[in-house]
Amino acid sequence: MRYRIRHSTRYSYPSSVSLSHNQARLIPRSLEYQFVESSNISILPEPNCQRVWIDSFGNRNCFFTVEQSHYSMDVSAESVVSRQSPCFYDDVSGQWSEMVTRLRHPRTRQDIEASQFVFGSQYAFGFPEARQYAEPSFPSGRALRDALLDLTQRIYQDFEYDTLATQVSTPTRTVLQERRGVCQDFAHLQIACLRSMGLAARYVSGYLLTHPAPGQVKLVGSDASHAWLSVYLGEGQWLDLDPTNNILPADEHITIGWGRDYADVGPIQGILIGTTQSF
Q1: pLDDT tens digits for 34-83?
Q2: Cβ(118)–Cβ(103) under 8 Å?
Q3: Would you say 54 and 61 are in contact if contact means Cβ atoms under 8 Å apart?
Q4: Residue of 87, 111, 116, 86 whose CA lies nearest to 99
Q5: What is the pLDDT of residues 222-236, one digit of tens each?
Q6: What whole-number distance in Å separates Cα of residue 241 and Cα of residue 228?
Q7: Cα 108-112-117 angle, rounded to 5 deg
Q8: Most CB atoms within 10 A, among 35, 101, 134, 167?
Q9: Distance between CA 184 and CA 195 in Å, rounded?
Q10: φ and ψ at 114, to 5 degrees?
Q11: Residue 103, SS3?
């Protein structure tokens, strides 16, 4: 599949902003199954300083500063990406408990790098209720892949997609209690469950192609940012899981980046000086 992606964001301020520092993560990653043919970020007002750098997770970040008075700011990213389905690792048969042991006693460089995703982070950390929810999917002796698919399906069945139920700052514990949220919440929840079991899971940010209802025309802008997760299987292999849709992400998911949780890969983050009102 070949995609042309355009991500547009506009900020409007109630009074003049004199200085704005920002970090954008809008450039897709180049992967074995995803090739970025071109990518460009445009910003208005024109930044006084702009540079692209690679973070510790391998994501491309664009830092920019606007040092002139402005009442609005527009950030647009355009990319052309070719995507194939990744390997689903159907032949993985090791028990989940064996992977827990391996992460405690890493054998390879890939194991060591993956082990950082066992530890808790700002939005996704293990806690007793998360482990209690996860445990039915992880009986003794069960294959790791089977346990992962079972947990993904349970979250899909047990939780309601509700765009009004949560905010970025809503704790994962609250999502588990209320049984509702959005893709970001479900990814954080499943990561928290897996980390509570001693497994390595990372948060993935990107886009998901949507399809119109039968007979309807696809609308420009109907596709949106999406979040899922990826779990370490050993030997440098990771399996992507999408609990919001109960699927293994294939050629309709475009990966922008990954990290410990949303805080590491939020599309645009920044600070500003000059306005005295909330917006």
Answers
A1: 999 999 999 999 999 999 999 999 999 999 999 999 999 999 999 999 99
A2: yes
A3: yes
A4: 111
A5: 567 899 999 999 999
A6: 6
A7: 140
A8: 134
A9: 16
A10: -70, -30
A11: helix
- Tally of residues, the chain: 279
Report d(CA 279, CA 269) in Å as an integer. Answer: 15
Q: Is the pLDDT of residue 212 over 80?
A: no
Residue 136 belongs to what H/E stretch? Answer: none
**Where does residue 176 rank: exposed (0-12), middle (13-18), buried (19+ CB within 10 A)?**
buried
At position 110, the amino acid (one-letter code) is: Q
Mean pLDDT of the chain: 92
Torsion angles phi and psi, residue 188, rounded to 5: -60, -40
Which amino acid appears at position 32 of this protein?
Answer: E
- Counting Cα atoms < 13 Å in the Cβ hemisphere of 164 gives 0
Interatomic CA distance for residues 188 and 128, integer angstroms: 15
> Strand, coil or helix: what is 190?
helix
Which amino acid is located at 137 in the chain?
S
